[in-house]
């Protein structure tokens, strides 16, 4: 993976935080829980993608070998 100038992992993480906080800020307290749970699940998945993306960006910038490129005997 080539190094990216744009911190896409951080941007996706911010969107995930907004999706996770949206039910609390938008819906009333006595609203149905299904939309809240759906947004929470979507935010969780998006946050997981952001973490993977940030780790990939870090590995591309540092030049450290990833698990796939490591050829040492363990």
Can you describe this structure?
The structure is a single chain. Helix 1 packs antiparallel against helix 2. This protein has one domain (8-62). The protein is mostly helical. Helix content is 66%, strand content 0%. The model has no long low-confidence stretch (mean pLDDT 79). It is built from two helices and no strands.
SSE map:
Layout: H1 8-26, H2 33-62
Helix pairs in contact: 1-2
Q: Keyphrases for this structure?
A:
74 residues; mainly alpha
- Identify low-pLDDT runs: none
Structural class: mainly alpha
- Strand content is under 5%
What series of H and E elements makes up the topology? HH
Task: Calculate the mean pLDDT score and round it.
Answer: 79
Tell me the helix content.
55-70%
The total tally of domains equals: 1
> What is the CA–CA distance across the termini?
25 Å
Number-wise, the strands total 0
What is the quaternary state of this protein?
single chain
What is the radius of gyration computed over CA atoms, rounded to a whole number of angstroms? 17 Å
The DSSP helix count reads 2
Q: Can you tell me the overall shape? A: elongated
Largest β-sheet summary: none
Quick summary:
The protein has 74 residues and is mainly alpha-helical.
């Amino acid at each position: 993976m080539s190094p990216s100038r744009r911190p896409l992992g951080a941007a996706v993480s911010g969107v995930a935080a907004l999706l996770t906080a949206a039910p609390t800020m938008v819906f009333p307290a006595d609203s149905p829980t299904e939309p809240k749970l759906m947004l929470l699940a979507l935010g969780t998945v998006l946050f997981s993608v952001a973490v993977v993306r940030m780790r990939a960006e870090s590995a591309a910038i540092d030049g450290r070998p990833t698990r796939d490129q490591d050829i040492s005997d363990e």
